[in-house]
Amino acid sequence: MVSEKRLAINFEKMSTITAPGQGITRIAFSDEDWQARNFIIELMKEAGLAIRIDHFGNVIGRLEGTDPKAKVVMLGSHIDSVPNGGNFDGVVGVLGAIEAINCINEANFVNVHPIEVVVFMSEESSRFGVATLGSKAMCGEMDVHTLKKLVDKKGHSLYNTLKLRGLDADKIDEAVYPHELKAFMELHIEQGKVLEATNTQLGIVTGIAAPTRMKVIINGQADHSGATPMNMRQDALCAAAEIILQVEKLAKSSEEFPVVGTTGIIHAHPGVMNVVPGTVELGIDIRSIYMETKIKVVKAVMAKIKTITENRNLTADITTLTNETPVRLKDEVINFLDDICKEKNYSHMQMPSGAGHDAMHWAHTTPTGMIFIPCKNGISHNPAEHAEMKDIVAGTEVLYTAICKLASKE
Ligand SMILES: [Zn+2]
């Protein structure tokens, strides 16, 4: 049985491993991250897992199966955080996975398939500007050139950062996971408010959205705000205002599948009260778990930017910064987790994940499942991030049941 007490003790301990300041600050490969990683390694050893470390520093704890050659059932998440983040993002998936192993041990469950618990390093993009780096290394999406190219704000390359931690960055190719998996499972906080608002205890993820991000520069004319009549202006900020509302409207009006659209960056120049804004930079992020639907909205936004700026006698330069492919999780895995929730009598719903996760890299090659638990007010990446212990227990219970079924004989 899942032990709430054991989980609570481990969350409490993790909450003390942070750099000074509000909330949790465990930046990838920092001393705090390393200290938390060492604590998790100890927990894994206590749970009877055999530890190995790959060349990116990912920690893999293995519970051998009665058939060591059978496909591995993998579960895991991350323990690094954003600056001033919370103690649940990622941590729920790691501590939940270790607790599931403890349950297996206590139930004397005999697993045919080996089970591996993984701590993926550097999941957050806070330090090197790119997310889920540890998963990328394990899934063959990383090379030495990229390690050298990724540099943090202090000028330290990821390559040198790995070397300083005693890892052999030159052998990054060998970090690629060499075998086909039976399944990959990740427990995570929702990082949104849907579960809480609908009073639902667990979410079963149907797909993981991926963003298209655009930088838009609107070029107008900076003029004197007193001396320029209204009909003689080329106000870039007024055009930006129309564009921002169109991003909202077009995302909202997607009829096929849900799309979210956000204009999160706006810089107006010169940014003074007595000058008509001559240039505006916008940062637009559009996401969906359906690529075709997302592209439709992106194209519609681009067309609107063109007509809005032309009507105002302005020009716009649009740069696509990223255009990633969303991941759809397989129906068989969704139904499998749905059945477990029913069996255990947990209220649950199927839902997309708006945020990226380690799981998305495995979904291309492996039957992959994600279980969400609610977080208070939907807040994440913030010191106020909070998940209720009863929900963590419920999520862990589903994870435990899932891996027992997956690791049994076919
Ligand atoms: Zn996370």
Kindly describe this structure.
The protein is an alpha/beta fold and 410 residues long. The protein folds into two domains: 4-208 and 326-407, Aminopeptidase (3-Layer(aba) Sandwich); 210-323, 2-Layer Sandwich (Alpha-Beta Plaits), CATH 3.30.70. 34% of the residues lie in helices and 22% in strands. Strands 1, 2, 3, 4, 5, 6, 11, 12 and 13 form a nine-stranded mixed β-sheet that branches. Strands 8-9-7-10 form a four-stranded antiparallel β-sheet, with helices on one face. Strand 1 (50-53) and strand 2 (59-63) form a beta hairpin. Helix 8 packs antiparallel against helix 9 (291-311). The mean pLDDT is 96. Zinc ion is lined by residues 78, 89-90, 123, 188, 357.
What's the CATH superfamily of the largest domain, by name?
Zn peptidases
DSSP, total strands: 13
How much is the radius of gyration in Å? 23 Å
CATH class bucket of the largest domain? Alpha Beta
Bound molecules: zinc ion
Quaternary class: single chain
Order of helices and strands: HHEEEHEHHHEHEEHEEHEEHEHEH
Indicate the overall shape: globular
Report strand %: 15-25%
Domain unit count? 2
Sheet/helix structural class: alpha/beta
CATH topology type of the largest domain: Aminopeptidase
Q: Fraction of residues in helices? A: 25-40%
Note the main sheet: 9 strands, mixed
Uncertain runs: none
Count of DSSP H/I helices: 12
The rounded distance between the terminal residues' Cα atoms is 24 Å
